[in-house]
Design goal:
With about 500 residues, this protein is an alpha/beta fold. It has four domains: about 10-35 and about 265-335; about 50-215, von Willebrand factor, type A domain (Rossmann fold, 3-Layer(aba) Sandwich), CATH 3.40.50.410; about 335-435; about 435-500, PGBD-like superfamily/PGBD (Muramoyl-pentapeptide Carboxypeptidase, domain 1). It contains 14 helices and 18 strands. The strands form four sheets. Strands 2, 10, 12, 13, 15 and 16 form a six-stranded mixed sheet that branches.
């Protein structure tokens, strides 16, 4: 699916088995890889205007660990990054809702920052009420100052606790969020600390077309806000939807990693916005009734989206087909190892997700047994794949197996494990696997965390800038040697766990 000069999304579909064993039922995976394209690289260009609503938790628990002060700093830094074409609204909430800053151009940043400085913790947590007031403000702006063509609208919801006042039913909340998305309001969710409901916050982000962040320490809050704003400023494609329509031989299809399979040969899935240079992948699992021989059409994959600047509707499609044969050797020879590895990883994530649920239910021993079996199964599959990512996944499974033991012994360890593991699985289902292994060339929040951990261990003296460069690689190697780990310069799960950063 090649891109022309004005396309801001480029995609490619690969089948794990271009040739299948005919005369029966089989499973075929289609890996849809796509990348955000900056159509004006290196040029000085005007980004789309932003319609931003900050929804900030001021409940009583925000007084712990200096959370409220770090939240004030993060919010003020966000204000500083807005321009004169951007629209801002701020909602603060506990068991009551206050509109701190109605939707309008920022203008004098000193005024809004002075109001942020008066943010004080109190009360309970009416999360849904605060969120929907932020949605209302963002929606009001769409009919006023933020009506400019190509405006990106985002509500950022931040909370450190459980929704315990107002609407608290997860299904009802998900319905409200989906309604906001239909109205053009995307919602990102940030959970702080150990005591918020990570399942609810992730569901808000997924149903709301935004991103989900687990903020382990209050000190990370400002950087997470900056990461979210940076992705919004660099957005090149939005309103992304992937569709598959299968032929009669496809019995059913699903998007792996999402719990919305309908049991038919057709599916569609909305995805959050993509920024320039960002790479994503989505996995389709098709159950196919293949004939004994011949070329067989499976159906068509279509990706619809809008360009961030101008809102132009775009799409690209690719027809999928396989060759059916009774020759098992031919099937084996035709195997696409790259696509097979991605399918293997995605299916292992699905199995692991079930084990995390068992841990959450207190069934630690059962989960550990299943994780051991999963690692063994992946090791067997990787004999033919010989894929480094699969090896790293096996390493991560073994580390998480040990973490499950620690989770069984401590409630705080359990909360931390569940949030960190679910965050990694959330990222992995869109193809982002840096949570399992960081290596030279990687950038972002995970690398910053690695740099800080290396610095705390006395192995690194460079800047905390989120760039995995040669100095970071050298520091990782030195740390690995000091801990009798494999000194390969890649910060895999064992290395990260050793320094308390996994």
């Amino acid at each position: 699916m090649p891109a022309n000069a004005k396309d801001t999304l480029r995609g490619q579909v690969q089948l794990d088995q271009p040739t299948v064993l005919g005369g029966g039922n089989t499973v075929v995976y289609a890996v849809v890889n796509f990348e955000g394209i900056d159509v004006d690289p290196g040029s000085v260009k005007e980004r789309p205007p932003l319609n931003l609503s900050l929804v900030l938790d001021r409940s009583g628990s925000m007084s712990d660990e200096g959370k409220i002060e770090y939240l004030r700093r993060a919010a003020k830094l966000a204000v500083d990054r807005l321009g004169n074409r951007d629209t801002l609204s701020i909602v603060e909430y506990d068991d009551s809702i206050t509109l701190m800053w109605p939707a309008r151009r920022v203008g004098n940043t000193g005024e809004v920052k002075a109001m942020i400085d008066r943010l004080d913790p109190r009360g309970s947590t009416n999360l849904t009420g605060g969120m929907m007031r932020g949605v209302d403000e963002a929606k009001n702006a769409l009919g006023g100052p933020a009506q400019a063509d190509g405006t990106i609208t985002r509500v950022i919801l931040m909370s450190d606790g459980l929704a315990n006042v107002g609407i608290t039913n997860p299904q009802e909340i998900a319905g409200l969020v989906r309604g906001a998305k239909r109205d053009g309001i995307r919602i990102s969710a940030m959970g702080l600390g150990r005591d918020y409901d990570e399942d609810l916050m992730q569901a808000v982000a997924e149903n709301g077309g935004g991103r989900y962040y687990y903020i382990e320490h209050p000190t990370q809050m400002a950087r997470v806000f900056q990461e979210e704003l940076g992705s919004l400023f660099d957005t090149v494609a939005r309103d992304i939807e992937i569709r598959f329509s299968g032929t009669a031989i496809v019995r059913k299809v699903e998007v792996v990693g999402y719990d919305d399979a309908n049991g038919t040969r057709e599916t569609k899935r909305g995805l959050d916005d993509v920024f320039g240079g960002e790479k994503r992948s989505v996995l389709l699992r098709m159950e196919v009734a293949a004939p004994s021989s011949g070329r067989v059409d499976l159906g068509q994959v279509t990706v619809n989206y809008k360009t961030a600047k101008g809102g132009e509707a775009k799409s690209f499609s690719q027809s999928l087909s396989v060759d059916a044969t009774t020759d098992r050797a031919a099937v084996s020879r035709a195997r696409n190892k790259e696509a097979s590895a991605q399918a293997t990883l995605a299916e292992s994530d699905r199995v692991q997700k079930e084990q995390v649920k068992l841990v959450q239910a207190g069934r630690h021993d059962e989960a550990k047994k299943n994780m051991t079996a999963l690692a063994k199964d992946l090791s067997e599959k990787n004999k033919s794949l010989n894929d480094e990512r699969v090896r790293r996944k096996i390493e991560a499974i073994n580390v998480e197996n040990d973490q499950m033991s620690r989770a069984a012994a401590s409630e705080s360890e359990q909360k931390s494990y569940l949030k960190a593991s679910k965050q990694r699985l959330y990222q992995a289902k869109s193809g982002k696997r840096s949570g399992y292994a960081l290596q030279p060339g990687d950038k972002g929040l995970e690398v910053e965390r690695l740099q800080q951990s290396l610095k705390d261990a006395g192995a690194y003296k460079g800047p905390i800038d989120g760039n995995y460069d040669a100095d970071v690689k050298q520091a990782v190697e030195a740390y690995q040697r000091s801990k009798n780990l494999n000194a390969d310069g890649v910060a895999g799960a064992a290395t990260m766990d050793s320094m308390g950063a996994y």
